[in-house]
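Researcher: We plan to redesign the surface later, but first we want a full-length starting point. Tokens attached.
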């Protein structure tokens, strides 16, 4: 089988904060990145990260944690070794090559699985607008805000569930995939073999590593 994605394990570095407002961060540490907005406005050398629960780009302004809330205005984000673009309102990492490209929207959903007790309450802090910017372009970027925090820790118990969305492009034709049923629907000619491969190897789309194995198998089926 031809290997399209040489690095499967380690795509997702899951980092959960101990704060009341849980985060699931894509990078283990904040990384240097350059952000380009529609209209060619650039913000360079930000210390940034991506919260996969809130679907927000976070960055450090000194010791202050900030977020970019006008996500649809982002055109590209480039770090030292990873690149991201917007697709259908979602920030997606670019994987693959010219023949076979997959855009990945890394997403984690919080699932409530109960509570530890009846005591405890949460309060919602207000959104504080720390500062805004007007750039010399046809667009105005004004939505740089400090993320909200909960003041009191909740006793509710949560777990994290992957809900990634993938945009699979083979030969220039792109399909949006989230579940195995989407893969079978979009590629009916390969559906039977895909189903057998998933069953034999016990693969699901919940696991990102499994998803890329399915995509590689699909590519090899098409290019036999």
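Model: Full-length starting sequence:
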């Amino acid at each position: 089988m031809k290997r399209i994605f040489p690095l499967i394990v380690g795509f997702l570095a899951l980092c959960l904060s101990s704060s009341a407002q849980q985060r699931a961060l894509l990078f283990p540490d904040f990384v240097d990145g350059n952000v380009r907005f529609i209209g060619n406005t650039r913000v360079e050398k930000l210390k940034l990260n991506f919260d996969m629960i809130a679907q927000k780009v976070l960055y450090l302004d000194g010791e202050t944690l900030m977020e970019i809330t006008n996500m649809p205005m982002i055109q590209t984000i480039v770090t030292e070794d990873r690149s991201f673009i917007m697709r259908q309102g979602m920030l997606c990492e670019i994987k693959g090559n010219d023949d076979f490209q997959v855009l990945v929207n890394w997403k984690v959903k919080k699932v409530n699985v109960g509570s530890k007790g009846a005591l405890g309450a949460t309060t919602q802090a207000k959104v504080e607008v720390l500062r805004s910017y007007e750039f010399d372009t046809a667009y105005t970027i004004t939505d740089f805000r400090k993320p909200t925090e909960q003041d009191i820790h909740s006793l509710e118990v949560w777990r994290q569930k992957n809900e990634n969305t993938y945009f699979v492009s083979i030969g220039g034709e792109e399909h949006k995939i989230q579940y195995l049923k989407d893969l079978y629907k979009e590629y009916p000619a390969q559906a039977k073999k895909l189903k057998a491969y998933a069953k034999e190897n016990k693969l699901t789309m919940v696991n990102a590593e499994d998803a890329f194995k399915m995509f590689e198998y699909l590519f090899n089926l098409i290019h036999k």
